[in-house]
Amino acid sequence: MSAHHPHAVLVLAGGLSHERDVSLRSGRRVAEALRGAGVEVAERDVDAGLLASLRADRPSCVVPMLHGETGEDGAIREVLELMSIPYVGATPAASRAAFDKPVAKMVVARAGLHTPESVCLPHETFRELGAADVMAALVERLGLPLMVKPARSGSALGCTVVHDAEQLPGAMVNAFAYGSVALLERFVTGSEVAVPVIDDGAGPRALPAIGIRPDGGVYDYTARYTAGSTEFDVPADLSPEVAAECARVAVAAHQALGLRDLSRSDLIVDADGRVWFLEVNVAPGFTETSTVPLSVQAAELDLGEVVAGLVRFAVDRG
């Protein structure tokens, strides 16, 4: 807990999700970057004393660096709205829609973007209809390989690529460990790219796409947060046309979902150069191995100045 200054920018990090550790690392990085840009910053964890502390010492703006359920389902933002404290990032309603992968996919598909065919099933369905029969129908419909993931979770926790039908039961158990609904998605083979979108008042614009080449072939939690277990292409190795299309898709997803300030879209470029939307993150990580800071670097921008610009915009909107 750093010393408090009235009206400092408050970086919130930690919380109780599975991604607490990642959140703390993101928060530290953002706070340091903001201080480097001359912004006065306080840092705080999310706990039972948070509201009293916000009341006693109103920050000029909050930068929520919370990942996973608490950070991305809109709950903390809802509280900040109640207290009329400006914050960086999407509204509670937009956060919830983006965090719910099946909902986000439906919204972007309506906006004309490509997203892999998928089925979304609650845990009860397997119990009530018989897991084996349901799984047989899934494989018949979507084919293999499949990507199985919790409908609502960040950082690739509980995600498995299923190459043959025998692997499906274990993948379902893995997904259900993180939530009561699973998303099963046709696995698109191609290059995975992450595209941040920022809007500091001049309208949303995409930052350079970052190419992701995980050692094990799957960009899972370990690959995301273990230095050296994923190679990043900064920027991604794409033709100018495909890079422009990735940027277009990320901005279109950001707008279709009503997001603001900052988001990061995860996309796949297939062998034909078609860009597929997988998911969007409204509270992207800012750790040493996160893609947003790498993209900021590829754009030759300063991370502290970028976040300070978002803070200014949030305060003006305030």
Automatic annotation (TrEMBL):
It catalyses: 2 D-alanine + ATP = D-alanyl-D-alanine + ADP + phosphate + H(+). The keyword Kinase does not apply. It is found in: Cytoplasm. Keywords: ATP-binding, Cell shape, Cell wall biogenesis/degradation, Cytoplasm, Ligase, Nucleotide-binding, Peptidoglycan synthesis. GO terms for molecular function: ligase activity. Its EC number is 6.3.2.4. Pathway: Cell wall biogenesis; peptidoglycan biosynthesis. It holds the Pfam family Dala_Dala_lig_N. Residues 105-312 form the ATP-grasp domain. It is an enzyme of class 6 (ligase). InterPro entries: ATP-grasp, ATP_grasp_subdomain_1, D_ala_D_ala, Dala_Dala_lig_C, Dala_Dala_lig_N, PreATP-grasp_dom_sf. Cell wall formation. NCBIfam families: PRK01372.1 (NF002378). Belongs to the D-alanine--D-alanine ligase family. This is D-alanine--D-alanine ligase. It comes from Nocardioides bigeumensis.
